[in-house]
Amino acid sequence: MSSNNKVLDVSNMDVILRGKTWTHPEDPAAKSAVHLLERNEALITWLQPRGGSVEDQIPAINVNGQYRGLSLRMQKSIWRHVRLKKGFVNLENLSQVKNDWGELICNHIFREKELHCESWFAHD
Questions:
Q1: Widest CA span of the chain, in angstroms?
Q2: What would the pLDDT profile of 34-66 be if each residue is shown by its tens digit?
Q3: What gap in Å lies between CA 93 and CA 113, rounded to an integer?
Q4: CA torsion angle for 65, 82, 104, 26 (degrees, to 10)?
């Protein structure tokens, strides 16, 4: 879920997929930065607690060398373009060699979109 853009302790986490570093002078949590986050999944670093599974992964953003959690507004901006279709699986293969799996969108946003679309899926 949301970490409200707090600095995360990553000492017991593995980086599953490293995103680009935030380079803008604006704080990514600021309302004025929403347009910079929209559909910009390249900024997302996926972190997984050691010993955890894909369901435990959390998205983060690298700001000045520190990983910060994403507020709900940030999450919604980043994954605004994702539309669920029947049979949508919230996993992607991150490495053809190691067969590492990661989430396509954070579970919190996935569940919210899924609930919103549930009645639509039922009519198929």
A1: 47
A2: 999 888 888 989 898 999 887 888 889 999 999
A3: 22
A4: 0
